[in-house]
Amino acid sequence: MVERSIRSAALSDYPRGALELIIVDDGSRDDTFFHMRHLRREFPELVRLVRFRGNRGKRAALLEGFEAARGEIVLTIDSDSEVEPSTVREMVKPFLADARVGAVAGRVAVLNRDSFISRMLEVQYALAFDFARAAQSVYRAVACCPGALSAFRRGVILPHLREWAQQQFLGRPVSHGEDQALTNIVLRAGYDTVYQSSAVVHTLAPTRYRQLSRMFVRWDRSYIVEGFSFAKFMLTAYRRDHRLLPIVGFAFSTLRVVSVFYLVLGLPALFDIHWRELLGVTLAMLVGASFTALYYLKIERSFRFLYGIAYALFSALCLQWILPWAMLTVRDERWGTR
91 and 184: one domain? Predict the structure, then answer.
């Protein structure tokens, strides 16, 4: 997969003289570096390899790449992801159009649709980007530029990278949420973060429940930590325009925490609920899920939108424990997928 990832970036429709690929091996113990060397021989003028002797974490790997980069615009791409030929060019466009743009979020699509979970995630990812991030981009404050595909104005983040690499929360190092933390750096510096739907990366999605739950636990820990970080400056004059709507968005996302606590406190009542009431709640949830699923049908023209409805039920029945667990274990800095 790392070969496919590097080759997809190397074959980008972008001027060769303005493109460099810095590939960081974070202490892998399998044949990853073998494949990296193979691609360096294939694209010697583009590929630069960095290899850590041992695992130092994604932040250390990104720090190495950011400091080694010579260009002003730096893209981050995960090694289990493939970009389309036009992706790099499309990611750069917002920076060229507006000097106030400090970071760009690309569109993350599912590469593998080989399980029921990954098919549900295909719909969920589309809604998370073409719906949620597109809405945030209207007021130029995308809350999280994803690690799978993001671009940053290097001069904006470089002065803060050492502090970012050593970030702590409640006295413990923070190893997850590096993408959202970088986004907060850009926003705090007064720059805009936007979404570019025409820049697409295809990434491997979890196919089993255990993989999925670990990924969501990590994401929710990041959501908690970086939510606190954003709250520290969201009421200040950190930017000239569009300061109200990011606060409104933050308030609505915080309601999710309140709703989860309400659900946990109401669990005993579920055992006494009448079957008609349970049926009514289920139908209401299905109707709500249908609105977002139909949006997927509108943008993709595919009956795979039905997986979006299935995901709503799956989430309600199987994923509600994740946010409370993430809150209880927020100081756990382990990545969770090794």
Answer: yes
What's the domain range around 326?
A: 57-338
DSSP string, 125-190: HHHIIIIIIHHHHHTTB-S---TTEEEEEHHHHGGGHHHHHT-EETTEE--S-HHHHHHHHHHHTT
Is residue 89 within 8 Å of residue 213, measured between CB atoms? no
Specify whether 207 is located in the same domain as 273. Answer: yes
| Number of Cβ atoms within 10 Å of the Cβ of 191 | 21
257 and 167 belong to one structural domain? yes
Query: How far is residue 278's CA from residue 299's CA, in Å, rounded to a whole number?
Result: 32
**Strand 101-110 versus strand 149-153 pairing type:** antiparallel
Contact 229, 330 (CB under 8 A): no
Tell me: do 90 and 14 sit in the same domain.
no
Residues 159 and 258 occupy one common structural domain: yes
Domain holding 337: CATH number? 3.90.550
Percentages helix, strand, coil for the chain (3-state, rounded to 5) are: 55, 15, 30
Each residue of 264-280: pLDDT tens digit? Answer: 666 566 556 666 766 77
Question: How many structural domains does the chain have?
Answer: 2
- Whether 253 and 123 map to the same domain: the answer is yes
pTM for this one? Answer: 0.90
Q: Tell whether 111 and 227 lie within a shared domain.
A: yes
Single out the residue of 67, 250, 9 nearest to residue 144, CA to CA: 250
Instruction: Report the interhelical angle of 275-300 vs 116-127 (nearest 10°).
Output: 70
Low-confidence ranges of the chain (pLDDT < 70): 261-275, 277-278, 281, 335-338
Rounded Cα distance between 9 and 17, Å, is 14
**Model pLDDT for residues 281-303, shown as the tens digit of each residue:** 677 777 777 777 777 777 777 88
